[in-house]
Amino acid sequence: xxxxxxxxxxxxxxxxxxxxxxxxxxxxxxxxxxxxxxxxxxxxxxxxxxxxxxxxxxxxxxxxxxxxxxxxxxxxxxxxxxxxxxxxxxxxxxxxxxxxxxxxxxxxxxxxxxxxxxxxxxxxxxxxx
Length: 129
Hints:
It contains four helices and four strands; from the N terminus they run H-H-E-H-E-E-H-E.
């Protein structure tokens, strides 16, 4: 076994101590960079989730079909009716466009009569019932 001279041993010890300290040290600062559109996306998701409440609310189905046509129908509806919630619901194999979130059947039927002028196949639904 070869013995290091004291100077080499001291230098090796300092080097190992320095490397040990750097390898196990932590900075203590956390920097989170978030895209500003992320918060907007979360708000949209919350809005969609709240509009899909299925408990005791009536909805009107205005479309039933493929994905592209349902997106177009939804955009047309939202452009014409800014004050009524609307969403696309997937039910294998079709996409459905549901509008409204009405508490009473009377309120839903009033809106149904107005919507039948533009969407003749629209009908009233009460999900999960």
